[in-house]
Amino acid sequence: MSLNDLIPVVNRLQDIVANANLSDLDLPLLTVIGSQSAGKSSVLENIVGKDFLPRGTGIVTRRPLILQLINIKQDDPLIRKPGVETDEDPDAMTLEDHLRNSMGGPDLPAEWGEFLHLPGKRFYNFQNAKREIERETARVAGKNKGISRIPINLKVYSPNVLNLTLVDLPGLTKIPVGDQPTDIERQIKNLVLEYISKPNSIILAVSPANVDLVNSEALKLARQVDPQGKRTIGILSKLDLMDHGTNALDILVGKVYPLKLGFIGVVNRSQQDISTNKSLKDSLAAEQDFFISHPAYRRMASHCGTEYLAKTLNRTLMNHIRDRLPDIKAKLNTLIGQTEQELATYGDDLDGAAEENRGALILQLLNRFSTCFISSIEGNSSDISTKELCGGARIYYVYNEVLGRSLRSINPLQNLTIRDIRTAIRNSTGPRPSLFVPELAFDLLVKPQIQLLEGPAHRCVELVYEELMKIGHGCGPKELARYPKLHARLIEVVSDLLRDRLGPTFRYVESLIDINRAYINTNHPDFVGAAAAMASVVDEKQRQSQKQKLRSARRIEKPGRTDGKVQETNGKVSSVKTVLDDKATPEKPQKSLVSEQAQKDEKDDSFDDSGSDSSESTDKDTFLNFFFGKDASPAQQKQAQDILASPQPPRLVNHISSVEYPDSAETSSVIQFHHSEAQQALEEQMDSLSISDEPLGEREQMECELIRRLIVSYFGIVRQTIQDQVPKAIMCLLVNYCKDAVQNTLVQTLYRESLFDELLYEDETLSQEREKCRKLLDSYKKASVVINEVV
Ligand SMILES: Nc1nc2c(ncn2[C@@H]2O[C@H](COP(=O)(O)OP(=O)(O)OP(=O)(O)O)[C@@H](O)[C@H]2O)c(=O)[nH]1
């Protein structure tokens, strides 16, 4: 097999490794070394088969030349790339040439060189390339024999070359000439070693036969990096210039210097041949004649010459490739398996599939989509996230955590000032003073409070709706990715279904609130009732009064200590003041009673039971004494009013003003109950218009407190009802409804023959991907055949 025979095999393998993204076939680097004028460039040129390297007497190669041969196919689009700069002289071009070039000409040569330092410029004429090498050498290394380690990179594109890299290096020399530095020998040696020490480098050590081999600098250096001679090929040049009567037979048969890859004798073109432009072809023929006709080499002529060198290189490259093959083969097998799997995920090509097959496919996809939707809600989907709550679990969370928490966060007495209560009581009694608990006022006041429950109930419906939407969007088998239009339509239909159900669910939840506002059932078994509430109010009042009396008594015993406390604890000034005042007027129960209640409210975040857990004591005597007893003194009234008019305890207000849902990522679930300052100011203004500053009577204070307790108790009952009923309503009207209806709705809307084409429109990128995948698989399979052939 000659180098030319190797080209197609290596090219196919190169294609394989490139396509399969395998590590490169990694063909060795051929590095030509030798003393000055040994014939390195000539050898290299013979291997490449192109006459393009500057040659001559004296030092010619003064910069490393990295020659990258790139194999291109005859029909490679690169060949006809329009608008490239060429080395052709425009003035010397004929009209025909111009036409040919402007049309991206069919006759452009398929071989050209391109320098790294002149990107985009093509050298179709290799004599021009030779001149450019000379110019570029002189530009960097000067004109006077100087050398430079900066390489010249030349790429040769041709259908007739192997993808190989060859390196031509400056000749080894001892004595500095021209601009060369005094340590030229060391510098060149280092430069050469840099290239040949790469294990991937095959060293072509050129030694001229007319110089004693013991003086071969090339062999000396090669031995340094390849002591066993495994990757060094000895080349004996200038065999034609040996003294008459002498020959290099001993060297060529390996008797003088041991090299595993052996020595090969060559006869390159002489300077005269170059001057007379002797063609490469003719010089190869002449070389052949030389060996056949030479008495010493005749017997081994088949193992001499450039052609044999090419064969040896070929064998070396093949061995190298064989070494790499098992690895490539294993990778290829894995890739074939993987690609087959990938191809299977794209599904069969539906082009030209029968109508019933399409119908069955659509039906199957609709069913799988609806099953996925249902199982996501029920929590038996196979694709359950472990990162966040989803589907049915998230709905449960909305009911229990989000709704429960937001309902609990509502203050039953929100927006309800003592003044509002007093005004309501007064309005409801009409012109007469009331005898008993003003029931109408309670009725009037509790209804707007019940309305407060509507916000969280609505939000709960919204959140469940949003979750169902999310489920709808994330649903469906993987195959749906292949049919983007079908997928979009499925989502659309489910979204429509959900949207249709949103209205009825909202309305039902609203009516739940309306129903609860329509009739205030004071007979509810859990309702605290007026008598019990009043009893608890009175009971607390009494207890408070007793406590205060006790404290007053103690203070009278130790007056100094009380004073000290007043000064020490700023925050408690008012309570201590109360005690002191109480001392002067012992019968002022109402104030401490109310403040106790405020403290109680403060402690109770949920606001729901403060009324209902009150004591059942019905101390009629005390109750009547209090309710129909003598009025409090004006001083007592003022004190009570101060406290009643005081705002809600700060912690309570903060708590109500912003309640966050536990799921911080769900910012939309944050329910805000902010009062705008403007609104508050307006309310205060209205208060001052509607309510006189007339202080509350003791009886009024008791009534207000009573109403407050009744509202808290009744509100708690309704809140519980709402917390119980809203999830049931949502399940019935939204979640279960959609679960039951999804499949039918999908089939009714989408299973229509007229829609099949549109719905089964395949994602273009996907069909391209499948095609690509199929081609890749083909190429892998072919590659596998190629590899088996090589072995
Ligand atoms: N007669 C004869 N001349 C040769 C042979 N090989 C090379 N030459 C001549 O030797 C001279 C140097 O050849 P090159 O190929 O330039 O040698 P080189 O080793 O590349 O030289 P530098 O790059 O300058 O180190 C040229 O004039 C060649 O024609 C050969 O086998 N026989």
Automatic annotation (TrEMBL):
Q: Which SUPFAM superfamilies match?
A: P-loop containing nucleoside triphosphate hydrolases (SSF52540)
In which residue ranges is the amino acid composition biased (Basic residues)?
544-553
Tell me which GO cellular component terms the UniProt record holds.
cytosol; microtubule; mitochondrial outer membrane; peroxisome
Instruction: Identify the residues that the record assigns to the GED domain, covering every copy.
Output: 704-791
Identify the keywords attached in UniProt to this record, alphabetized. Answer: GTP-binding, Hydrolase, Membrane, Mitochondrion, Mitochondrion outer membrane, Nucleotide-binding, Phosphoprotein
Q: Give the start-end ranges of region Disordered.
A: 539-620
In terms of Pfam families, this protein maps to: Dynamin_M, Dynamin_N, GED
Q: Which reaction does it catalyse?
A: GTP + H2O = GDP + phosphate + H(+)
Start and end residues of each Dynamin-type G domain: 24-326
Protein name per UniProt: dynamin GTPase
Q: Which locations, inside or outside the cell, does it occupy? A: Mitochondrion outer membrane
